[in-house]
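Hi R.,

Here are the chain sequences for the assembly we discussed:
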Amino acid sequence: MKGKYSSLQNDLARFSKALSHPARVQIMEILLSQSCCYSGDMATEIPIARSTLSQHLTELKNAGLIDGEIELPRIRYCVNTENWEKARILFLSFFDKDISIIDDANSCRK
Amino acid sequence: MKGKYSSLQNDLARFSKALSHPARVQIMEILLSQSCCYSGDMATEIPIARSTLSQHLTELKNAGLIDGEIELPRIRYCVNTENWEKARILFLSFFDKDISIIDDANSCRK
DNA sequence: TTCGTATTTCGCAAAATTACGAAATATAAA
DNA sequence: TTTATATTTCGTAATTTTGCGAAATACGAA
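And here is the predicted structure of the full complex:
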């Protein structure tokens, strides 16, 4: 009782925080729908300044949900599939107590 | 092209924000596991001051995820099942995107 | 009425978030 | 070397979040 939060609670909160801004939701939707994307291409779709977009990309990167590969002068952003799957499992088990999907995911993992 | 965010994006961000703190994740877990709960009972499990807990409960209430029924001097909190289902559907559809797209992403990676 | 209980609201402070434009960075192309 | 391009980092500001303890609130019981 009254101990620290569990690591699952912290992980779910961390991923939730990463998705707690509509710009970041849109970024993930773009990356999920078209494999990879450059920051500039997203900037034409998302209604914020490029420097602000860059900050949101950094936050998603820090949360582990995306990776950025440098192809100067551009940077190619992609979903980090391993952590995306981790987040997916966390949210599915949080919202849907039917565990079968999670067991499948675990059995496919590495 | 650079329009406002869609209502689905805003809704998902709003629910994500509600779950973006481990205390609020724990609150939802408690309420989901035992239908309803009094603030004081949660206070014995969650490692924050009662006044801070009250703030988190208010945030979850504002996000629509929980309701509070007054039974003075206590308040009985319950999951708002309608909005919980709404959030559940949003998250499930967000995370259930076709994974093959992600495989494409890997195959096109330099 | 007074006391006890449960919870919130208030007042405050520290820290984080969000946002923008300007400047810096790093490379390829001319 | 100079120029163009894509993106980030810097500097700054406004707002929000998180946290606590003290005080307020509302009721039932003594």
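The first strand of chain A starts at residue 36 and ends at 38. The helical segments of chain A are 7-18, 22-33, 39-43, 50-62, 81-95, 100-108.

Let me know if anything looks off.

Best,
T.
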